[in-house]
Request: fold
Amino acid sequence: MKPRIFADNPDDRMPKTNDRRPATEQPSVRIGYGFDSHEFRSGIPLKIGGITLHHDKGLGGHSDGDVLLHAITDALLGALAAPDIGALFPPSDPKWKGADSAIFLLEALKRVDDEGYAVSNIDASLILAAPKIGPHASAIRTRVAELLGVRGDCVGLKAKTPEGLNLDAAAIAHVVVLLKRVPHKRSGVRSR
Ligand SMILES: [Zn+2]
Reply:
């Protein structure tokens, strides 16, 4: 038996890559999941969720190392079954070195819009030993909501310390996102 994935359209089968169905056959909601991790390094600013936090180390690696925005970007792309952040913005390309990760999130969001969807809500878990996220959680949620174009109460954010994981040198983000189909839009056609 072939796999079936869309409960609201039980006769539909797993679409082949690049298959595009008519908007009327698109599911009304799509879920996406993103994961990312970066290693702490001295001498660079710490950016999480588009906010610069005061800390003696930042996150190295791709662009500005914003682990939360990267995981959100991958969750958005994953919900569309689109190529992931590393495929769209290769870390080997020097033009992304130090880049503002909001660029990646906004490109993913444009694709969401192009496909006729909008963000319903997201939920994120950050795992890092330091700094404490609590005092900055409100600012991070506000900035993420602003980037996504949703209300602040549509952005869930939990911060955990990596108890028993021996991962104090890294920051990790897990994100799930729910997209809802925007009824007046047609897939692949901009409304403006
Ligand atoms: Zn990353």
